[in-house]
Amino acid sequence: MNDFIPITDDGLVGKDQFGQIWAIQADDTSMRTMIRDPRGQVCNICGKGWLNTRDSMVDHAYIDGHWMHKTCYIGHLKLNERSMWETAFSKALRPHGGWKGMKDRYEIDSQYPSGWGTPWYQCEYHRSDLNVRGQFTFGRRKRVWSISYKGDSPFASPDELKPLGDEDVTFDVTDFEVLIHAWTVPKVDEYIARIINAIHPETADVEVSAG
Fold it and tell me: Maximum distance among all alpha carbons in the chain?
């Protein structure tokens, strides 16, 4: 790069002749990425600033006018999304006997990363009294939240899912499976409730676990 002037102690971040900030790879100086300059700023989440090194300076996000470490922001998103899923299942299961928690919830690798690294989840769904068993898979896919369910038996009340066909979103349903994308948190709540009502409309205790 012409007129690259290092500004970090490791020499891997610098300015070009136009004052733009670039981060280069230590093992391949031809690989470079333009970044914002977070020096002198404070992370809106942890309250700390940035070190004068490449690894620190590239770890930043500028969201809605606020500076944050990217790692802090990802942690924030993970906590928020986990709370969102647990709240949605809790609301949906309340008429069916209450929420026992998603035991041993585990993360899965996703073929549709959100861009921020927030996890996808899978959980087994049981109704031993009705001989119902299936699996939910859910997580963020780009700008939407994806919710899918695959059961070992057909939906008891498939009419619960018919209104979802009128939504302007990705929606696929068979006798045993459903997939839908939600754009908002209220829609996450609504879609999970409809899926659970379609699985079993009766009130009874429910167990949700990772297996």
Answer: 73
As a whole number of angstroms, the distance between CA 211 and CA 204 comes to 20
Amino acid identity at 58: V
Cα–Cα distance between 41 and 47 in angstroms, integer? 9
Total residues belonging to the chain = 211
- Report the distance separating Cα 138 and Cα 166, nearest Å: 21
CA-based end-to-end distance of the chain: 54
Helix H or strand E encompassing 86: helix 70-93
pTM, rounded to two decimals? 0.72
Instruction: Write the secondary structure of 47-80 as one string of H (helix), E (strand) and C (coil).
Output: CCCCCCCHHHHCCCEEECCEEECHHHHHHHHHHH
Q: How confident is the model at residue 210 (pLDDT cuts 50, 70, 90)?
A: very low
Q: Give the pLDDT band (50/70/90) at residue 205.
A: very low
Compute the distance between CA of residue 58 and CA of residue 60 in angstroms, rounded to an integer. Answer: 6
Strand 144-151 relative to strand 177-182, pairing: antiparallel
d(CA 79, CA 128): 31
In angstroms, what is the C-alpha Rg of the chain? 23
Cα 15-19-24 angle, rounded to 5 deg? 30
Edge-to-edge strand ranges of the sheet holding 32-35 = 5-6, 13-15, 21-24, 32-35
Taking the C-alpha atoms of residue 75 and residue 77, their distance in angstroms, rounded to an integer, is 5
- The structure tokens 């790069």 sit at 1
